[in-house]
Design brief:
With 176 residues, the chain is an all-alpha fold. The longest helix is centred in the middle third of the chain and has 119 residues.
């Protein structure tokens, strides 16, 4: 960037000298008036003192050069400030990207917490269902044992009734 600015200033100096030389010649009444653009070029004018043209050119350059140099330094400072600003912007952009990634991580953590809560609820429900099924199995076993006991008692009661009926039924007497 610095080289480009130096080249621009150098080209500007050459153009300023050429324009100054033409302006100086026109100021003194020497140069093209209504003639063609090729007429009145500096090489065609032998009457002009080269030393005077050089002095006038140097005077004009010395008049404008400090302003140009101040402009150059101001442009350099502006360029440096822009570089600093760009670096600062890049840092801020990276901070925002980090912030977005942190938000993504926070979203993942909240989602993980949500699913963890779901898993805890499912585990609690499974434990509750396991307890209920265990209680139901115990109850079913007790009921089965009670039915078996009742059936056994009924069977014993039937056998007793059958035995009693046999005893109550009349027996033919024995003849002696």
């Amino acid at each position: 960037m610095k080289e480009v600015l130096e080249n621009v200033v150098a080209v500007g100096r050459l153009e300023a000298r050429a324009d100054l030389s033409r302006s100086t010649l026109l100021f003194f009444g020497v140069g093209p008036s209504d003639a063609s653009p090729d007429e009145g070029v500096v090489e065609d004018l032998p009457l002009i003192d080269e030393k005077a043209v050089e002095q006038l050119t140097e005077g004009l350059i010395s008049h404008y050069l400090p302003d140009l140099q101040r402009s150059k330094s101001a442009l350099q400072e502006l360029t440096q400030n822009q570089v600093v600003l760009l670096e600062t912007l890049e840092q801020e952009i990276s901070k925002f990207k980090e912030c977005n990634s942190i938000l993504d991580i926070n979203a993942l953590f909240s989602e993980a917490k949500h699913y963890h809560n779901k898993l805890v609820n499912i585990r609690n429900e499974m434990m509750m269902l396991h307890e209920k099924t265990s209680k139901l199995k115990k109850r079913a076993l007790k009921l089965q044992q009670k039915r078996q006991k009742e059936e056994l008692e009924r069977e014993q009661q039937r056998e007793k009734e059958l035995e009693r009926e046999k005893q109550l039924t009349a027996k033919p007497a024995r003849r002696m």
